[in-house]
Design goal:
Elements lengths: L1 E7 L9 E6 L2 E8 L12 H18 L5 H16 L12 E10 L2 E7 L3 E6 L4 E5 L2 H7 L3 H4 L6 H15 L22 E6 L3 E7 L1 H8 L6 H11 L1 H14 L15 E7 L2
Antiparallel strand pairs: 1-10, 2-3, 3-4, 4-5, 5-8, 6-7, 6-9, 9-10
Helix pairs in contact: 1-2, 6-8, 7-8
């Protein structure tokens, strides 16, 4: 098992709300979300939530091989809830949430679960690259984010529109007509994308937060195949460097409208035996 992992916060002085880790035969990546500088109901914060959930999930995947990755995720969400439900208001509409990718080798297959808009790239030995990502949040967001994209990123007007947009999204979180994400409710795991792939068909897998996939799905500076080729040839750090260069070229979001000028970015490349 060969792992290359790079994770950087949006800015050097900001906490990194992404989390990624690996153990023999298992890898996880989470991208935490909350309300910047706003009350979330959780005294621990988004970075605590994503890292704690990620650590518990990794341990559950290793210790409970009879459970599917989705079942492991449900157990992990319940376990993390029990750690802070007595101290935090988990019914608060802005309580911390996180995307989740988990992949595990078991019984000759790579099992995976994907919840939220982080991306799992499955690189076959035949050279094909399949992308697994949950686009339900994006589909809902497209209907709501017009005012956000029309304003310069970082302006007071943009901040106000972004707050309204996030409030509207919160009302659709973990609902059949909206999108599903890991939060305080273990039921979300039942709505994740889950499957398995024969291990002998794969050369490697890449787990990426949406701060790194911007190169493809926001900036359109590469295809998924080109993005995988960049990871394989130059490593995760080069992907994030190119993302940061693009962000620096368009700090106000005029060319590439986006909620945040910079975002946490994480890439984990797992080369399979």
């Amino acid at each position: 098992m060969t792992i290359a992992l790079v994770s950087l916060p949006a800015t050097p002085d900001a906490p990194n709300e992404d989390f990624a880790a690996a153990s023999p035969g298992v890898a996880v990546l989470l991208d935490g979300a909350g309300v910047a500088r706003g009350r979330t109901g959780c005294e621990h914060g988004v970075a605590w939530f994503s890292s704690t959930l990620g650590g518990v999930l990794l341990g559950t995947l290793v210790a409970q091989p009879a459970l599917s990755p989705a079942e492991c995720l449900s157990h992990a969400i319940s376990a993390v809830r029990s750690l802070h439900e007595g101290d935090c208001d988990l019914c608060h509409p802005a309580s911390p949430t996180s995307t989740v990718i988990a992949a595990r080798v078991r019984a000759g297959a790579l099992e995976y679960v994907v919840l939220g808009d982080s991306a799992l790239l499955l690189a076959g030995r035949d050279g094909a690259v399949d992308v697994v990502t949950d686009r339900r949040l994006d589909e809902v967001g497209k209907q709501l984010r017009g005012p956000v994209d029309a304003l310069p990123t970082g302006s007071p007007e943009h901040a106000a529109a972004l707050a309204e947009y996030r409030s509207a999204l919160t009302g659709l979180r973990n609902r059949p007509e909206g999108f599903w994400i890991a939060g305080p409710d273990p039921e979300a795991a039942q709505h994740a994308l889950a499957s398995s792939v024969p291990l002998d068909s794969l050369a490697s897998v890449v787990l990426m937060s949406d701060g790194a996939t911007r190169l493809v799905d926001r900036f359109e500076l590469a295809t998924w195949d080109e993005l995988f080729a960049l990871v394989a040839a130059s490593g995760p750090a080069e992907v994030i460097r190119q993302v940061r260069d693009a962000e620096a070229e368009d700090p106000a979001g005029q060319r590439w409208p986006r909620g945040k000028a910079h975002d946490d970015a994480t890439v984990l490349h797992w080369v399979l035996p």
